[in-house]
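Researcher: Quick one. two chains, 374 residues in total.
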Amino acid sequence: MEAYFATRNTGKFREVESLALKYGVKVKHLNFEAVEIQSENLEQIALTSLKSVLDKYRLPVFVEDSGLFISSLKGFPGPYSSYTYKTIGFEGILRLMVNVKNRKAYFLSVIAFGSPNISPKIFRGRVDGVIVSKPRGEHGFGFDPIFKPKNSRKTFAEMSVEEKNKFSHRSKASRAFFKWFKNMFNV
Amino acid sequence: MEAYFATRNTGKFREVESLALKYGVKVKHLNFEAVEIQSENLEQIALTSLKSVLDKYRLPVFVEDSGLFISSLKGFPGPYSSYTYKTIGFEGILRLMVNVKNRKAYFLSVIAFGSPNISPKIFRGRVDGVIVSKPRGEHGFGFDPIFKPKNSRKTFAEMSVEEKNKFSHRSKASRAFFKWFKNMFNV
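Model:
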């Protein structure tokens, strides 16, 4: 059985597709803009997005939503990470963090899967780390140059895709999902 | 005829209610949490919210959405102003604006009205001004202490409600709406 990944983000699709292959799961791209609601809860956002896709397509489908949550900024930018990145960028985040001692932050990824016959199921991936004081690295995207996961010397942007996949929130959520999917459908 | 204002924000309701009275329009409070989608377009957010209320209530109803758009921050915090206020506050905005010469900003308010028999109608109110370098004043709420409208020496937070209503985005949108409403229904 195949699973359809509803996303407008081709880079995200490729990242998840390559992980799926390791589990023998075939992921197809559904280039559909799911409705995203305003909420501080990623799971609620993902579940509503999933519903908006299932209202339109009778397919086994999943959506993914993620965000960077910074402790000293009360979770900002959280669910609005991509808008925040597009406007104030990581430079803006670093400005907000000047002279701030508590640098703790985490990335969270939530995958919601459902089909016309299966009620929605949620998978989470979280990676804890810190906001560094100066951007480092050229790989990845978004806030990768300013986020350094725990137990790593490198920021996400200093890692290759393979390295990042060992740590990343999205790969953790994806692995949990594909493991479940494989068992569920004996693929 | 009455119009129902769907909002969870009692302060906002009172502000709009008092303006309505001047036009002889009776506004009732519908304490209902409308769905807010993620979008950079306030009108799109308001129209979707309105739809979510009309799906539930067969009433003449309106919703209001507003945001602060800062020129040098590419419109940030825009539609996510209330989340941004709750997390990084106006202190965060001032940090982002240190040594920034272009201080231009505007507040935008969008009201969407509809009923089971009338297709949605949009009313806008915009007030241009600047972000000051230090917070001033104790009135109002949100980003009021750091926003000074054009042709005023005072920030919104230094004004009484009556003074603010002369300038404010929300009162402009409300007036346009109530004027139309009064004509439409001969109230």
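Chain B has one domain: 2-185.
Researcher: Thanks, that's what I needed.
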